[in-house]
Design a protein that fits this description.
alpha+beta, BirA Bifunctional Protein, domain 2, 8-stranded mixed β-sheet, Rossmann fold, 16 strands, about 40% helix
Length: about 450
């Protein structure tokens, strides 16, 4: 009974709720995603940037719409006597801050950047949504607010997903207007929702005054019917915004990228204007017929933000970008059983076997000598049994073993053995690395 109680006893410390931790068995999926995402981004001439995890809270308050917004409520504040710091809730504002701070405007425009890293939002953890989560994103900042860059960002996102192995990628697109037409659009949305104030949830009742566009983000059942009859953005945006969206869609058609217009699509931050988009993949798992599970899952989104740099103290500067929720993508990759190519190790591995205590002490130096010469080494220095070490070699997939026994220690030599053929030879220690390389070519 005591043993059973000990077995069921919870550990003293566990991960904080909502924090996603990556275990070793998951890293092949993560490595695959990053290999493709970084590779495609670099192919498109994007460069990597990595900004700090801790930022000034005002950076996000100013860019997201101030206190009282959903972003403000979700931020993790760091307690400090003087400074108001937060763990970054998203990366676009951080990249925009770096663009100003490090004088990127002096570079050839637009500047094309990509990033990967953790973000933090104090929301209720649920399937696919965490308080600490990783995003991969790209930003195109500077130059003209040319619709070709909107299309290029969408094209890049689509290509990354397709190269990973997702066949059905769909992009939902909308235009939320610009500085010229947004004020009138917001007034019409507020007027419509105020006449239906009792039919929507409390959060939407607050959003109507704070940020009316956010009512379209609400997923609560009681708000859906009201949303269906809401004013249509495409009927309200100005002629310049209509033309901008038309050009974006024409570019997507040229690129053969599937898209759908979605009047209810908005982004949750105040700095977005004109084009906004969300990226979806088919949700069904491998083996399911398409008609059996036609639902789709959002894996990322983005849009144009021509006012963000100005909002945080820079000059008016065009910008567009997107981000992926990587945990969600990994989750769907597993569900759909997307094949991960076998990872190639540039260091072909050998297994180092020691026999006896004297050999064990000498082994550590010889193992490091092989690694210095670019030879990957699997070793079982904690195992004294020769048989157990060979078993490890077999599990590790090594084809060649380097064996050091007491005799070899005194003779300053090692045995190099082909584990497939059983053929072996004795070579001097000073020629060990050279001979091992010859055997693993």
């Amino acid at each position: 009974m005591e043993k059973e109680q000990k077995k069921n006893k919870k550990p003293a410390f566990v991960a904080v709720k909502g924090i996603y931790e990556i275990m070793p068995a998951e890293f092949p999926w993560w490595d695959r995603f990053l290999e493709v995402a970084e590779g495609v981004s670099k192919f498109y001439n994007f460069e990597r940037i990595e900004t700090g995890i801790v930022e000034n809270a005002d950076l996000f308050l100013r860019s997201a719409g101030g206190e009282g917004t959903d972003v403000h409520k979700e931020m993790f504040f760091i307690k400090s006597n003087k400074d108001k710091w937060v763990l970054r809730p998203e990366a676009t504002a951080s990249v925009a801050r770096a663009y100003i701070e490090y004088g990127f405007s002096r570079l050839q425009q637009p500047v094309k950047l990509f990033y990967f890293g953790p973000m933090f939002r104090h929301e209720n953890p649920q399937a696919g949504r965490y308080r600490e989560f990783r995003q991969f994103g790209v930003e195109i900042i500077g130059g003209e607010n040319d619709p070709v860059f909107d299309a290029q960002a969408i094209s890049l996102a689509s290509r990354i997903l397709k190269e990973i192995g997702f066949k059905d990628v769909v992009v939902e697109v909308n235009s939320i207007g610009c500085r010229v037409c947004q004020p009138a659009i917001k007034k019409k949305i507020q007027k419509y929702y105020r006449t239906n104030i009792k039919k929507v949830c409390r959060d939407c009742q607050t959003r109507i005054d704070v940020n009316p566009f956010r009512v379209f983000d609400c997923k609560r059942e009681e708000c859906q019917e009201v949303k269906k009859a809401a004013p249509v953005f495409l009927d309200l945006v100005c002629s310049n915004c209509q033309k901008h969206l038309k050009d974006v869609l024409e570019y997507l058609e040229e690129l053969s990228i599937s898209y759908e217009l979605n009047n209810n699509l908005v982004r949750g931050l105040d700095y977005y204007d004109r084009t906004v988009f969300e990226i979806f993949v088919e949700a069904g798992s491998k083996g399911e017929k398409k008609e059996e599970n036609a639902s789709k899952l959002a894996v990322g989104g983005g849009g144009r933000y021509d006012y963000l740099i100005e909002m945080i103290g820079g000059r008016p500067t065009a910008g567009v970008g997107f981000s992926f929720g990587v945990e969600r993508i990994i989750e769907i990759m597993k569900k759909k059983e997307i094949k991960i190519p076998a990872q190639k190790n540039k260091y072909k591995s050998v297994f180092f076997v020691h026999v006896g205590e004297v050999a064990k002490k000498r082994s550590l130096k010889l193992v490091e000598e092989l690694r210095k010469n670019g030879v990957g080494v699997i070793e079982g220095l904690s195992k004294d049994s020769f048989a157990k070490q060979l078993k490890m070699a077999d599990k590790g997939g090594a084809e060649v073993a380097v064996i050091l026994g007491q005799r070899e220690v005194f003779e300053e030599s090692v045995i190099i053995k082909n584990l497939k053929t059983g053929i072996q030879e004795t070579v001097p220690v000073e020629k060990m690395a050279e001979e091992v390389k010859r055997h693993i070519k």
